[in-house]
Specification:
By secondary structure, this protein is α+β, with helices and mostly antiparallel strands. It has helices at 74-86, 143-151, 158-161; strands at residues 3-7, 13-19, 31-39, 45-50, 61-62, 64-67, 94-103, 112-120, 135-141. It is built from three helices and nine strands, in the order E-E-E-E-E-E-H-E-E-E-H-H. The strands form two sheets. Strands 3, 4, 5, 6, 7, 8 and 9 form a seven-stranded mixed sheet that branches.
Amino acid sequence: MEYWDIYDKNKQLTGRKMKRNDWCLKEGEYHLTVLGVIRRPDGKYLITRRVLTKAWAPGWWEVSGGAAQAGESSEEAVRREVLEETGLDVNGCVGGYMFTYHRENPLEGDNYFVDVYRFEKDFKEEDLHLQTEETAGYKIATADEIKALADKGIFLHYDSIKRVFEE
């Protein structure tokens, strides 16, 4: 069973945990998620397409990410998520933490912080090993191509993270 740490409104650990996807958070309680944007030296980004079996936003485009597990730091979580979902190891890469945003869904009990990271990594397509349970393909895209997907309404969280695609 996977557990997540519970944070307060100031993003401080409360010492309590929740079961993964339990959605029991009260007002002022949050869990932590991370997003890891991979930028190649040519200025293009790795994006992945969500599998069609996802309950939420199936087939949409996104960047790698997920929830931090209990006891795991934000940086540990983003490195793990990127490796699990893409096969790329971002340890030692230029870049790192960029900013945090948060969402509050009190009726659903799902409030969360999102730590956004960007790493620069020179990789070839054959270096990718996608997690088939999560991803249904990938694209090496320019910032303009990503914005075009967002304009079509099929890029997850774009309005919250668009500044990560700026130079």
